[in-house]
Each structure stands twice: as C-alpha cells, then as structure tokens.
Amino acid sequence: MHIRHAEVKDAAKIAEVQVRSWQTSYKGIVDSNYLAEMSIDERTFRWKEWLLQGPSYIVLVMENDKKDICGFISGGCIRSDHPYDSEIYAFYLLKEVQKKGYGTKMIKRFGQQLAKQGKKSMIVWVLKDNPAKKAYISLGGIKIDEELITVGNQKLSEECYAWRDMSLILD
Predict the structure, then answer these.
(1) What ranges in 5-141 are assigned the alpha helix state H?
(2) What is the CATH classification number for the domain harbouring 128?
(3) Residue ranges of the N-acetyltransferase domain (predicted)?
(4) Angle at 86 between CA 80 and CA 90, to 5 degrees
(5) Which label site among 29, 39, 69, 143 has the fewest CB atoms less than 10 Å from its CB?
(6) What pLDDT tens digit does each residue of the chain (171 aa) get?
(7) For the chain, what is the domain count?
(8) What's this model's pTM, rounded to 2 decimal places?
(9) In the sheet where 122-127 sits, what is the strand order?
(10) Do the bridges between strand 86-93 and strand 122-127 make them parallel or antiparallel, or are there none, so unpaired?
(11) In the chain, what is the straight-line distance between the N-terminal and C-terminal CA atoms, in Å?
(12) Residue 16: which of 79, 82, 93 has the closest Cα?
C-alpha cells in the first residue's frame, strides 16, 4: 500500500471510497434508505471543491499495488471551539482493507503532515456505534465530547476523541 497526497483528479475515486465505505461500515447504524441513496456523482463534485482548498486542507489517499484508491483521510484546522488545533474531517477505508493496520499508518502519516504545519493536537468525531472507533482509542485518543447529529432523518450520537499531544502517535 502506498499513501500520497490527493490530487483533484482523484475526486471520483475518493467519492467512491466514501460512499462504498458508508454503505458497508454503517449498515445497521445509518438508515438503509439513506445509504442506498448516497450519490458518488454528488460526492465527486464536493471533493473537487474540497481538493482545491489549498495546503492547509490535507487529503491523503491510500493506493494498492494496482494504483486503485482504497482509502483516504482528510482534515486540517479544528472546526469547533475545543482547545485543540487540528481535526480529522473524514477518514474511510474500503471494507477489504480494514483491520489490517493500514488505518493506523494513515493516521500517523496524516499527523505528520499536520505537524509540518505546526499543529500539536488533534480531534476526530466518530459515530458512537461505529466499531472503528476502537482504532482511535488504541492510539491513545481520549473521549472528550458527545453530541447528537442528524443523518438523513435520523438522530445519531457522535463522539469526539482527542490527542492533546499528537507527537505520541507519530512514532
């Protein structure tokens, strides 16, 4: 697996990973109609915009040996009033590459990119019922907050995990 910075030309593949990941990872958590109606085309349009935001917005993709994108992580400056300076906005891996250590490698590489920008701490929001949150906990993330969000017609609980000192996960 190879991790690199995303380019605008990757927008469609990132959108596909996001939609496919939601449809498999959130099955039984998020309403099945919402998952079925997710649009790769609509997400592609958004990703093209996001990928043009500039160097403070980081998007890394993970490619397999065939150069197919099978995961991505994005983020940058924190978007809330928590006392941290950076945030993971989105982080998704296709089902077939989950639970193999690739997610940990992506988080570490993402943290290194944030550190190059002078960032020292980080948060991530994750659905409370998402079993993938164990990865954040295993990397030393501490739950600092919880809130209700709306996904489609559902109210879902989301938890915030934080690292005060991001250097602890960058080894």
Answers:
(1) 11-25, 32-37, 40-51, 102-116, 133-138
(2) 3.40.630.30
(3) 1-167
(4) 85
(5) 39
(6) 889 999 999 999 999 999 999 999 899 899 999 999 999 999 999 999 888 887 778 999 999 888 889 999 999 888 888 889 999 999 999 888 877 878 889 999 999 898 998 999 999 999 999 888 888 898 899 999 999 999 988 999 999 999 999 888 876
(7) 1
(8) 0.89
(9) 2-5, 58-63, 69-77, 86-93, 122-127, 154-163, 142-151
(10) parallel
(11) 19
(12) 93
Retrieve residue 162's tokens: 């934080």
Q: Per the structure block, which two tokens stand in for 142?
A: 């501490």
Amino acid residing at 127: L
- List all residues 6 or more positions away from 37 whose beta carbon is below 8 Å from its beta carbon: none
Tokens of 20: 């496919």
The answer to whether residues 29 and 133 touch, using CB atoms and an 8 Å cutoff, is no
